[in-house]
Amino acid sequence: YKTDSRTLVLTGSGDMYEYATSSAFPWWVFKDSTLTIELPQSLTSISQQAFWGSSASLITPLPDSVVWVGASAFLGSMWYEWQPNGPIYVGKALYTYKSNSVLQGDSIVIDDGTVSISPKAFYYTSSPTSTQKFSVTMPRSVTIIGKKAFADRKLSSITCLAEEPPTCEADVFYGVNKKTPVYVPASAIDD
Question: Using CA atoms in the order 116, 160, 112, 67, what is the torsion angle rounded to 10 degrees?
Fold first, then answer.
């Protein structure tokens, strides 16, 4: 931690260690005083709640090497609050879809090259009891969808462009109407 610039500098490579709670992270003591977080270019994952509630408004760089972001990794942080509404990507991971309003009729097309959809990615988009519907299209590059990514969302349709379905963690579509149409490439269907 650089006291003079109030910068948290993380080093290392690969996956970030998973702590049980946000307060277990070694940098938790700096969460209310940090202005900037510097991440290593070789980081491949960001743990759940890693920067939850952080006062940092700048996270630099956001490495392209990141392929997984855990649930609530940036929730309640100044960085998150300053992000515009819409999809928030961290590297090749769709961290969340930020929205202050319901997504009525929206068609969300996830960027090509996205490898993962984080746990609870759409959990905070609108009220779980909302009757507003939206459709989602996932590119063929998505290989894993995190726990409860679309839980309790009112989806009008799901399109997956991958010929092989992505790995789904627990309850990805929990509470989604079982009659929601799912579209896949014809080549993905066994004869």
Answer: 10
